[in-house]
Write a structure and sequence with these properties.
By secondary structure, the chain is an alpha/beta fold. It contains twelve helices and nine strands.
Amino acid sequence: MSDLRPRVQTLAQLIPPLTYDLHKGDCGRVAAIGGCEEYTGAPYFVASSALRLGSDVAYVICEKDAATVIKSYSPDLIVNPYLRSVDNQGDRSLDEIEKKIAPLLDKLHAVSAGSGLGNDTNMRESVRRAIKAARERDLPIVLDADALALVTESPDIISGYANAVLTPNPPEFARLSKALGVSTTGKELPVDEAAQVVAQKLGGVTVVRKGKKDIITNGQRVFVCDETGGLRRCGGQGDLLSGATLTFLAWGEKYKQGMWKPQSSSEPIEHALIPMHAAYAACMLARHASFLAYEECGRATTSSSVLEQIDIAFDNKFEEILNAVKPSKL
């Protein structure tokens, strides 16, 4: 396995410089699809971490019974109660939900799916259709949590889509690997090599196998993120990672369009490698934010504590590079 760590100066090329010429949305419009009656925190963490890193607009597309709760968490999020569980399917069909989501996807630069989705068959079918619609628009996609179960059941929904990032934890990775016929026991294939094979079998998607070290691979290249994290394993940290990945992917779309001059002298990032660089940057920041939160809160650390450190982690890693490029004063 190639043990590569991209330079921070290279990652910084994906970050838009803040200038007085920017308009709302220039730094990214993103959405988190998920959130049901039982799981309202997960999509909140995805969308909020995206905003804290610098996305301009963050939507949550959730089940209607989750919407009011998520709205109450933050006025910064735009909450769309489009999804319907089986219990609530009477007032909106799957086709109608699909038509509601489509215009929103047209506005976005990246989308995530799965956080707080749950096991409801109606909800999963809506997400399956949303993934298909995102692929048709060539939107970057982050798949985590319950959306990974959809990939395990039907790999074709994401296979061959190089603009996708999957973020499985060890149990999710084991299930996905088994479905694809890849050994993860360590006796036949070490887990880091298994991640590379899984990415290959899925046709070049980027896989982030979370763990003591995060293995990031598109099947050809491998990055390893061993940034020191905190010692707490509270629920919700994976959602923060999804949100961070979402923001860097959205910035990557702007980077492809040449929307700004790179903020470092590093070699340009190949467009095909943007998902890997976005995922590595997100892993680095999520782990560092976890470390900062644990240093402050110890055993009392929660994902809310980590969220509060996301912007500080960003400054710690990128501030010196970004300060080299100052916007002109009015």
